Amino acid sequence: MAILPSPSNSNLRASWTTTLSMNLTSVACLTSAFLPLLKRTPHAMVINISSARASLALSTASSLSPTRAVAYSVGKTALNAPSIAMAKSEPTVRVYSVIPGHCRTAFNGYAGKKDPLDGAKVVVELVAGDGKEANGFWEFEKGRLRIVPW
Fold it and tell me: For the whole model, what pTM was predicted?
């Protein structure tokens, strides 16, 4: 979710606060609330829906186009830190962040190149693996699951 700043930036603080609250703070609170239940399951996993823009390696080395949704990108990048921390502190819980890809959704005015069902395949593959994959940042492209640098 992202609240874009207005052209005059009159809502800049509110757009950043709301976007970070939804994409970072709310995810951390929800995950924390469900953690006791997750730890009681045999194949506990947390799957955070992220973005290619959350990978500093991809953001600096790839041809990602500029975005007006900077707060969204920052929130997704920031979500990496609690994901990594949880993976280290909760060894019985697999923690994944996933890149669904540039999917055609209302978020981008249906301009994405990927069908959302194809974007969901990364989640399906990780869940089907019953937590056998290593903690990390994942995508499913060209028919295979692969880890992505943070």
Answer: 0.88
